[in-house]
Amino acid sequence: MKILNSVENIDTFIKENRFSIIYFSSNSCGVCIGLLPKIQQLLKAYPRINYAKVEVDKAKEAAAKFSVFTLPCIIGFIDETEIIREARFISIIELEKKIKRYYELME
């Protein structure tokens, strides 16, 4: 998973990828560490989605810009527009339903 640690890198990543998902986490967040492999496994089924991770400990300004107040937080973008936002208690099943719906619309 690509790691983005600046607002500029995140903005570029979102602009360069039609469908992107950003995973905001912290190395001190046990839930974030435990959820990451599940997110990666889920996204393997969607090859046209580009995803990256932001470590908010190293990119506090990015968390502020994207209004991330709790971790973990997942934000999805299509054509630079936010379409999905899940935070804190993230249900993989519900997240997959949302991703699948938008993914199928892109086909």
From TrEMBL:
This is Thioredoxin family protein. Residues 8-81 form the Thioredoxin domain. Pfam families: Thioredoxin. CDD domains: TRX_family.
